[in-house]
Amino acid sequence: MHPGTIHRLVWGALWISALAGGMAHAQLTAIVAVEPTEKKAGNSILRSALEAGLSKASGQTVTVTTTEDLADAMRATRSGGYDIFIGPPQVAASALQRGYELVGCSQKSDHYVLVGLPQIESVGALKGKRLYLPQQDSVYSYMGRGMLNEAGLSFKDLKSVRHEKYPQAGLSALTLGTTDATVVRAEEWAQWSATFPGAAKVLATSRPVPGGFSAVVRKELPSEVRGKLSQWLSTASSGTGLAPTGLRPEMQEYQKVAELGLFTPTSLPGVKRVSAKDVVELQGQGAVVVDTRTEKEYRAKRIRGAVWAAYGEKSLKDVAFNPEQDDFKALETLDRSKALIFSCNGAECWKSYKAAKVAADKGFRNVYWMRGGLPEWDAEGLPTEGG
């Protein structure tokens, strides 16, 4: 073989070896997203120490970014922008829906309360009122949106939503009369209400929410690397300023946080919500399941006996959606004499919610809503057709 050829082959082999070695030691990225309300905890985190600790644990170089811009952190979870996310529960909850696994959280679970002036009777009575919240992507705002959502209200139904940095200031705004309601942690409310008895009252209480920082890692990382990172994060040294994320809340708690403001409400005023088993009974009595999904989805797989109602959805996925932006002409083809059960792709799908609401508003008398849709039907092992 020609010496020049041998020389090129040797250098080629060395280049491939170097490339493989570089890939084996590829750099990992992490982001620490800090709630404005946890600024003190955020300031105590030593980025260089955190990088050193994560790098040593994983055997790879880890670059750490810190941010207080929660909107940016949430966008990063949707695009898979980092290998490790450390932040408030809504950031972890979003990442867990998109290819990450839970390490744990740093504090026990909290409850959040929506509190209002004494004369406000219920969450529904907040329509046309003023609400104080921290920045839009804070956990307080997520809880507020969720509690309004469950009552069938949207931020659009309020007179104003004022976003500031610190939730405790919302309680001060209540005493000053510059807001009608705010959201705080149950512990904060207990302390404040003891000092100002009768100044406000609880209108709604959230489900448990993981407390402090939560940590998640990308599932695509090698299992050995994930294990080492999880072990280190669960027992993080105080020298980094990051509290250990060794507590393991129920995954359902993160699921509920992920649903807030994105999933349909749990009830629909004027329409009875039914389960898959209820639908079986209603079908036996002559009720008709109305599938509001796309024609392609309907033809591929559907609840047995369901009819398809062509529906063009353009309005926002919000309880205050504008029905004028959607096409509900197919409702007029349905038999008004029969009970109608509207269904789609589960709790995250708004089509059946909107169609059921519009049908009720148009005077249909026997309207039902199957929030769980086809996924719930499948989970119960009930018969389908199509395909």
Automatic annotation (TrEMBL):
Keywords: Signal, Transferase. GO terms for molecular function: thiosulfate-cyanide sulfurtransferase activity. It comes from the Bacteria. InterPro entries: Rhodanese-like_dom, Rhodanese-like_dom_sf. The keyword Signal applies. This is Sulfurtransferase. Residues 1-26 form the signal peptide. PROSITE patterns: RHODANESE_3. Residues 283-386 form the Rhodanese domain. Pfam families: Phosphonate-bd, Rhodanese.
